[in-house]
Amino acid sequence: MSLARFLVVRLAGAIVTLLVVSMVVFAAIHNVPGGYEDVVLGPLATPELRAQTAEKYGLDQPIPVQYVKWLSAVVHGDLGTSMTSKTSVSSELARRIPATLELVLLALAFSLLAGVPLGIAAGLSSDSRFSRATSRLAGSLTMSIPDFVLGATLVYLFSVNSWWLRVGSYVGITEDLVGNIRSMVLPAFTLGLFGVAVIMRTQRDAIRGVLTQTFITAAVARGDAPRTIIRRNVIRNSSIPLVTIVAVLIGAFISGSVIVESLFSIPGIGVFFLNSVRNRDYAVVQAAVLLSATVFVVANMVADALYAVLDPRVGSTSAARGQK
Question: Domain spanning 93-278 has what CATH number?
Answer without folding.
Answer: 1.10.3720.10
